[in-house]
Amino acid sequence: MTATGLLCYCRQGFEPELAAELTERAAMAGIAGYARTKRDAGHVLFLCEDGAMLDRALPFSTLIFARQKLRLLAELPRLDPNDRITPMLAALADSGSFGELVMEHPDSEAGKPLAGLARSLGNALRPALRKAGLLRAQDDARLPRLHVCLLAGSHALLASSRPNDSAPWPQGIPRLRMPPEAPSRSALKLEEALLVLLDAEERARLLKEGMVAADLGAAPGGWSWVLARHLLRVSAIDNGPLRQSVLDTGRVQHLRADGFSWQPPHPLDWMVCDMVEQPRRVAERMATWLREGWCRHAIFNLKLPMKKRWQETRLCLELFAQQAQKPLTIRARQLYHDREEITVFATPITTRNVALPRRRRD
Length: 362
Fold this sequence. Notes:
By secondary structure, the protein is α/β, with parallel strands linked by helices. The chain has helices at about 15-30, 50-55, 85-90, 115-130, 185-195, 200-205, 220-230, 245, 280-290, 310-325, and strands at about 1-10, 35, 45-50, 70-75, 100-105, 145-150, 155-160, 210-215, 235, 250-255, 270-275, 295-305, 330-335, 340-350.
């Protein structure tokens, strides 16, 4: 059956937050619709009369609780296990040609057992799509991707994504490996933040050897270790100890101080912060760093409460933007390696993103 709207993936358990975000953002864009989901489904459908308009009105880069944003094309709730392909081809008959087929399932307890079926169905569906003229013979990154999301053996969602307005990874999840020398799992959070919240050009321009950074609440040192791997010089601020592997990089100086009260003796290129604290207090302190010019770029986490998490997210980001008192580029996302939190990247819009001069060492 034809369906129009958006299909968005999210962290299991955060469906209400994503549904609330989509509902509010659609209303702000003047588009009427409604969210459909259930707890722990790992995805949200937002249904409306004009899915193409909604897709354009809600850029993926502006969404916080969505790992992936797809334009919904059809919902097939009663597939025959003996022939799933024929109704899929019929539903896609007027959809044009796609550059790639992505077989998926929600990242949820109910969705994970469908991985094997998704692979085998994809192997059979690709040649059928090509024969019908719906899929290019070779992957073409210039064209929209076709996503087939299995909710059950007899239930599938068909959707599409534009390469420049969606995550490039299946399910919106970047596959990162934990290096054995990493001091903590939190290292993956910063690695993912740099990959998701900055594009390739920004990573090359904003992460250069010799740049200087502060890591507030650094212990045991996962985020300092990541910055050191990018060849930055880091002041790790924490009264707690750092892992020896962090100090062994030769790029990290451990300063025993309170991350909420410490301020740098000179402006820094970067400040990062992953402290367990009330999100509004963190937002206010991060705003101080940008307002006073203590850093040029920042990445920080906001730990969310158990209830009204979308409302708290919106409030904290508004508070941060207001108290920074300067135009900022702000991007926020609940990352795959996040838990009850979101990660925020901020940088002044008018700042030239170049390395600060190195200070002389007397």
